[in-house]
Prior knowledge:
Layout: H1 3-6, H2 13-18, H3 25-31, H4 36-44, H5 60-66, H6 72-86
Helix pairs in contact: 4-6
Amino acid sequence: MRNHDLYTRQYTVQELVENINNLSLKTILYTQSIDAEFAVKYILTTDDYALCVEETYYDIHDVLDLQPHLTYDEIINEAKKQYMTKHK
């Protein structure tokens, strides 16, 4: 899977995760429907998956604008859940 593939069809979150190192976060945000877990884990809490400097600047407001099916509370709750899991 490559970035241009994201413009022609929707992929599952699992497929996106499996190919995350080949994909632009920007393209994912603009073309795919992601869940709160994906947003927090791959976009908001690490720069490990960014392909360029621009992708390190995404914040919760960008995610909410580009993924209108997600809510602020969903993202915050998922961030808390992931934080608690990491720091047990």
